[in-house]
Structure formats: structure tokens, C-alpha cells
Amino acid sequence: MKLHPFRLRRLRQSVPHSTVVSSPKGGLSHSRSTARQTVWATIALIALFNLGMNFALDTVKPEWRDPEYGHRLKELWRLQDAEPARPLVVALGSSRPQMGLSPLDLGLGEGPHDPLVYNFSAAGCGPVHELLNLRRLLDAGVRPDFLLVEVLRPVLAGNGPAEKLIHPSRLGYADLARLEPYCDDPASLKRDWVHLRLTPWYSLRLNLMSHWGGSMLHWKSRQDFMWKQMIGRGWLPYFFTEIPPEKRAQGIADAHVQYMDYFRQYSISPLSDRSYRDLLAECRLQGIRVAFFVMPESATFRSWYPPGAEAQATAYLQSLSQEFSVPVFDASAWFPDGKAFADGHHLMRQGAEAFSRRFGPECVGPWVRGNTP
Description:
The protein has 373 residues and is of the alpha/beta class. 53% of the residues lie in helices and 6% in strands. It has helices spanning 5-14, 25-58, 67-82, 95-100, 127-139, 162-165, 173-179, 186-198, 200-203, 205-213, 225-228, 245-263, 270-286, 299-302, 309-324, 349-368; strands spanning 88-92, 116-119, 146-150, 289-294, 328-330. The chain has a 5-stranded parallel beta sheet with strand order 2-1-3-4-5, with helices on both faces. Strand 1, helix 4 and strand 2 form a beta-alpha-beta unit.
């Protein structure tokens, strides 16, 4: 039935307002606006979190990105604060002295004016990395009175370029400038570093989880051994006191494969030479006395050097010694018996203690007390 317009208008006026259905457009627009705000707030929160994490990695928490460096730096700060009058001797080097040099077994005394020796070595650390760690320490306010610099003779033949040596996740922002002169492609290092720092909570997840709850990780993924097993002023002794012969044999075989590339056409790398010269020049400028040292190697490991390689490395160190007036402590032949090593070149705990007890009175003690030029 068709209603008269007048009746239809009266009917509309009689319907209560609560029964009128409003347009959905206003509510939908409000929902979209709220969703957009939530998304942008989440993005801002993530960006703020990443920014804060990156700030911490470069300032108060260097151990989250580079545990070997960061934990040692903080312990060294504490030791210096506790005993500021003691002459500071810092050892830089690879995993060989990291596992093989025990400062407390050097026998140099613990009096208020006896040398305070700290082992600041790191796995895989060669000439460029040693120079980087020296400059990191100086910028962190640590100026050693004496610097022991390990020379890993095989690595003299092939150290570099810098972007291939150190994983960018371990680097702080200032390290990029420190390493740039030693890179073939510094732009690639910066790109890789920026990419990793966009999501530091992911790229550093194993380090972070090891610090925050290492027991939740599988033992093969845990990184906390780097600081939890570190004892005696930076010393990280070999993980086992004894190993079966077959495990030692496998370690020697693995080391042979690892080092063979260095021994092919052995010659001193220009980058290694430049790094050591820059390190010596930096120390001369800072008034830091330097000594080079060579860690022990088993007779088996030394047999891998090609003819003339050991003599070449020795002559090179002697030339630096004469030019810069620095001593060289060569302990490479001190322990020919392979049983002192886990794999022919990493000293086990007893071997490290025996080496340190000899290295202190024969080399380090006379040097720091002025009996060695």
C-alpha cells in the first residue's frame, strides 16, 4: 500500500532516535586511524629499542658484541682502580697466549709496586686485530706501561684484509674508522656492519642469550665460556686437563689443514708488516715499552714450516727489534713434546703453567725491571 507523503513524514518522526541506524563510515574511519597509530607506535618502539641497544653496545656493554674484549676491559678497569700504583703489563695475542699465558704463574710478585700483568688475548687475533685492541684500550683510558705482543709466525704470511679478519658484529662504531686503513673494501665492512646493527637483538642473539640465560641454550651454542671460564687476569685455560690420544691426533690434523695455506709460498705480508709498524709507532708516541714474543709450538707443528720460513720470520722480527729497539722473546722451541699441547700449538693447562713459570723469570721479569733493553 502506498503511503501519502504526509503520512510517511509523520511515521518517520514517530520512530525513536535509538532505533535509527547510523552510517558505518565514521566508525570504520576511527578503527583505521587507531590501527595506523598502533602500527606507527610499534615501529617507533622497535626503533627506540634498536637505538638504545646500539648505544649500549658502543658504550656500557661492549661485552654483548665482543665478549673477549668487553669482559677483559671491565676486569682490567677494576684491577687498575684497586691497584693504580702497579706498572701495567698487557699481553696482546691470539688463542695461543689466551690459553697458554697465565699471569699469576709468571712469578713477578703481588706487592703494591710489582708489575700487574693482564692477558688481553683473543681467539684469531693477528697483527691487525692486535693493533685494533691496542687502540681500543687507549681510547678506553687504559695506557699500559709495557705491551707484550705475540707474533703468530704463520699468520705473518697472510693477515688481511681487515674486512675478512674480524666479524663486523664484534665491532663498535669507532672500530670502523680504526680498521678502514687496513681494508681493501672499507665500504663493504660498513655495509655489513650497518646491516647487522639494524637488528642487533637478532644478529647478536647467541651472545645476548648467553649473558641473559645461557643455560637455556644448547651447549654448542653457548658463548658464556668466554667469560665464565676466564680466570687469573684474562687467562682462559684449555677446556680439559687431559685428552685421549685420538682426540689430540684429530686436533693436530685439523691444525694442519688450518695452517697449510699460510705455509704455501711463505713470505711476510705487507699488511702484517704495516700493522706491526703502526703499532710500534703508536706505542713510541704513547711512551709504551713493547716486546714481541713467540709462543711454544710442538716439534710436529714446526715440521710443517717450509724450508727457510722460520728463518725468514726470525730475520723479520730481528729487523723490527733493531729498528724500534724492542726485544723478541722466542719460546717456539721450549716444549717440543706434543703432550704439552692439545693440538700441536695450543698449550693445555699444565703446559701453560709450566710455560708461564719459565717465561716470567727468564723474559718478562728482567724486561719490565730494566735488565733487558
